[in-house]
Amino acid sequence: MKDFFENSISKLKKERGIFHSEDDLKLSLGFIIKELYPELEIRLEKPININMTDIYGNKSIVRAPIDIIVYDKNGKTIPIELKYKTKKLETEFNGETYNLTNQGARDIGRYSFRKDIYRIEQYLTKEEKSDFGIIFILTNDENYINNNVGEKETFDKHFSCHQNSIIRKEYKGWNYSKIDAKKYEKKDNFWRYINQNKKHWTFTGAKTYKLELKDDYPIVWKEYSELNKSEFKFCLIKIKKHLN
To answer: I need a surface site. Which of 65, 204, 219, 234 has the fewest CB within 10 A?
Structure first.
């Protein structure tokens, strides 16, 4: 089981250089794992309960799915979270046409990488028969790879995941020094639209979670494929279990 994921990605690279969607990636990877390791059981989108704390200090239990959970014959599990972030690309691969959209919203994308790490850490805390988990990120959007927003006064500077960066365990949150003061005002300790009783989007929903991690995570991007002058790279993060 030690190298099962690396072996699976190696085979996936040879067979699928591109995917229509994150669901396409998820299903394809599940098939590859089962093909290489028929003794393993695969579950997609299995929901689990996760302990969350928001920026207001409110604690809650959130029901959320894990993209893939692998079960071995001894009942041990390995949780896997996937991300597939694309920019616009029209191309063919093995006679099949692909038309990828420009997803944009990279600030939320970077935040979601951290949230996936948090989710796997929480899973490992709860599951006695799980020793490690995996984050797999695949993208043809070089902004995630080359853009060091951590050196800039961007809104998402604390969530940078560029090449050779480190996602630190300390949670610093959104960089409100870059909020648009022409649109928003700070009122009752929240940023709200001026003259509206409507909070900025980072004060609502899933973007409010305080994602303190148990470890620092180095980010290394590696080559996956190149199609029609668009280069895909992947980042593989292994998350170990903490006993406290």
So the answer is: 204
